[in-house]
Amino acid sequence: MPADKKRQATQRFTWTGTDGNQRSFSYWCYLPPDAPPTSRLPLLLFLHGAGERGNNLSLVCKHGPPKLIEQGEDFPFVVIAPQCPFDQWWTMPQNLIGLAKLVEQVSADYPIDPERMYVTGMSMGGYGTWQLAATYPKLFAAIVPICGGTNLSQAVALQSIPVWAFHGRDDDIVPLIRSQEIIDELTKIGSDATLTIYDNVRHDSWSATYANREIYDWLLTHKTSNSFGE
Length: 230
Known about the structure:
The chain has 230 residues and is an alpha/beta fold. The protein contains seven helices and eight strands. Strand 6, helix 4 (155-158) and strand 7 (163-168) form a beta-alpha-beta unit. The N and C termini lie far apart (38 Å).
């Protein structure tokens, strides 16, 4: 699919991991049209699923906000959508470091509002959303993980982050219990955590979710005063 450069620009980000090796992500970057030049913009990081890994960035536009942007939808966020390399996972420690550094770099390049940064992802990206937020609990104001999951031991790290998770009841790839158990654990400790379950839906719980403008409005109701690197 040809990319409309006026809507999403191709970028590349390189960082040095804790092992001393250089790594990189290619990513899409979308800027809201007609944003006042002096305004501070919210940021939305989108993490794709396992099927979109590799070195063909157009794959990242198969689903989620990048797909909707290509179809002409506008968003009130700067949207960044990196591509995970072949045979890797978002939850790998070096990739988590890279994602946090990418957010930091984009925030330096554009007038990002540090109090309104959010992350969402589907399937592998849902797992990545949970793990990235748990690893950097002061980075994001709210998260939307879709058909993902995380270890229950991460609940304490996630306790202060508003979560709206989504999952298909009949998901045969990532079972519903993966979202249900962490949401239940967060609820037990008093977190702002909600799970929406789609009846008669299998793994594709993302199409309906990303088409729902309410989730973007919900994200924007949340702010944080936290900063990078914590």
